[in-house]
Backbone:
């Protein structure tokens, strides 16, 4: 096997494309080309030990399928397109979700292509491009809306996809989401246990489904505690960090400011705390903040913050799994997952 492995490597280096082929791997292992091809695709008729050996050797010799050839033979690209708004990513959302997807597809034939877009432009453009050009086998989208027109379009065209977040459409589709309603309820309960009574929510932006989920949990918990909401007007986590800081500074300097805040994102929490401190307040004394986090930066930034982890690497793995199964034709109702918040870090009474 060692001699054949060296021979395959030498042949690959001398080949025009400089890479091994199914034929060269088959020669090295003494197997048929069809057997090697099926083993690399995890075909159930190939024994587990043979599949393991073929895949190990393919990795060792640096085998990569010729995507143009695969597309000609099968009509597939072996590409998953992640259509992602990459603006203002302060807290690792983009890198973590990409890490999770690539971790899940590492042992599959699929490759990830990130298609960035700006929220200031038509979000349908990148979706239409991928579908109309056939440049991917499946799509992952985020910033999901209740009646998301991208989801409608993909359903109408029968194109495999998964969404980061839910919709309110009648047709079932693959998704992964975080239980923001439970998060908001837990955050309010923690602040009330701390003795806080003037609570404000820095919410997701209007139009996104998880805003409605978070507001529902926040309002229900306030109602249970017999407390009103301290409104922040149209402020959301989509505002710039400068705007959030300045608006919170003005609110905190008012006569009867909030004494408890719930932030829908880590980036929002950074700006929120900056506003409180600019107004002369001390976190944990005049006011407490509970926030979602996806990075340890918040804990290092201010230990007084109360945090709930939202694992975007987990989200990436779940979305990759869902879209690959959707490509294979699995029932979308079985490709839906919801991550539960693990709990707010303890708050001691005032």
Residues:
């Amino acid at each position: 096997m060692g001699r054949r492995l060296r021979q395959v490597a030498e042949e690959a280096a001398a080949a025009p494309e400089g890479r091994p082929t199914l034929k060269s791997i088959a020669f090295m292992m003494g197997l048929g080309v069809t057997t090697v091809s099926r083993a690399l695709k995890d075909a159930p008729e190939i024994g587990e030990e043979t599949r393991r050996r073929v895949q190990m050797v393919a990795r060792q010799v640096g085998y990569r399928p010729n995507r143009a050839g695969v597309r000609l033979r099968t009509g597939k690209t072996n590409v998953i397109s992640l259509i992602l708004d990459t603006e203002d990513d302060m807290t690792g959302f983009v890198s973590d979700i990409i890490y999770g997807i690539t971790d899940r597809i590492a042992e599959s034939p699929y490759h990830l292509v990130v298609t960035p877009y700006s929220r200031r432009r038509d979000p349908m453009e990148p979706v239409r491009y991928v579908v109309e050009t056939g440049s991917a086998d499946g799509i992952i989208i985020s910033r999901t809306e209740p009646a998301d027109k991208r989801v409608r379009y993909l359903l109408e065209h029968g194109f495999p996809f998964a969404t980061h977040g839910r919709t309110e459409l009648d047709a079932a589709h693959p998704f992964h989401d975080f239980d923001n309603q439970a998060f908001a309820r837990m955050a309010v309960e923690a602040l009330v246990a701390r003795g806080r009574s003037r609570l404000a929510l820095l919410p997701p932006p209007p139009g996104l489904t998880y805003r409605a989920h978070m507001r529902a949990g926040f309002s229900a918990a306030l109602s249970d505690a017999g407390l009103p909401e301290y409104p922040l007007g149209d402020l959301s986590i989509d505002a710039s960090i400068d705007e959030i800081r300045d608006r919170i500074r003005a609110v905190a300097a008012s006569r009867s400011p909030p004494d408890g805040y719930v932030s829908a994102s880590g980036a929002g929490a950074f700006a929120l705390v900056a506003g409180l401190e600019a107004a002369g307040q001390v976190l944990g004394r005049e006011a407490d903040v509970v926030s979602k986090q996806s990075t340890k930066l918040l804990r290092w930034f201010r230990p007084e913050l109360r945090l709930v982890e939202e694992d975007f690497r987990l989200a990436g793995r779940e979305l990759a799994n869902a879209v690959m199964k959707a490509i294979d034709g699995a029932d979308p109702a079985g490709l839906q997952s919801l991550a539960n918040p693990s709990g707010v870090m303890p708050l001691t009474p005032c």
In short: Confidence is low (pLDDT under 50) at residues 8-16, 344-350.
